[in-house]
Design goal:
Length: about 200
């Protein structure tokens, strides 16, 4: 594993944690006030492009976690789960962005319905996949580092909250901390990884 890959993964994870948190604070704050940013000519706002960037950083994060699990432990049991998480990210972020962009063409009511359905699908899918990540990593926890155990527990908590849908807002708070934790893990020296 190269130091450059680890550094890039850590920078990506830190960027994701910060931008994700700021994005959702901004969106929730403005939706509570009933205001929004100036809409561009095609019906999109600058925040829509930040949303896409968060999606790209999410995909990069899951690729990085999958890579580090394999490089440190030759652990490939979660490859399908991480590929599924990446797929859900693509559907959620690009689908929502496309529906938002098409709102001026298909009408805002239909676009809102499409966005709501994509979001509902994504929340449930993320919940199931996060539970799988947590359970599988905890099942094999005796050969993993303490940071990965905490990551597994946080994934399990996020998954349970997402499955309930009503408590999925908790995942918006837990996710950035989980990503920041993995940034620390990415920065660890390979020989510092615990082998039991």
């Amino acid at each position: 594993m190269s130091d450059n890959q680890n550094m890039l993964s850590a920078v990506g994870a830190i960027s994701l944690a910060v931008i994700y948190s700021l994005y959702w604070m901004f969106e929730i704050g403005f939706s509570q006030q009933g205001t929004s940013l100036e809409v561009l000519a095609n019906g999109l706002s600058p925040m829509d492009f930040v949303f896409l960037m968060v999606g790209a950083l999410n995909v990069f994060f899951y690729i990085s976690v999958r890579r580090v699990l394999y490089e440190h432990y030759h652990y490939a049991k979660l490859n399908v789960v991480f590929a599924s998480l990446i797929g859900v990210c693509v559907v959620f972020y690009i689908g929502t962005f496309a529906a938002d962009a098409a709102a001026s063409l298909i009408g805002s009511d239909l676009a809102s319905t499409v966005i709501a359905l994509i979001t509902l699908f994504a929340i449930i899918a993320f919940g199931i996949l996060d539970i799988l990540v947590g359970v599988m990593l905890l099942r094999d926890a005796d050969t993993r580092s303490d940071l990965l155990r905490v990551f597994a527990i946080a994934s399990l908590i996020m998954g349970i909250m997402e499955i309930t849908i009503l408590l999925s807002i908790v995942a918006l708070v837990v996710f950035p901390f989980t990503v920041a934790l993995m940034a620390v893990y990415f920065l660890r020296e390979p020989e510092a990884v615990e082998f039991v």
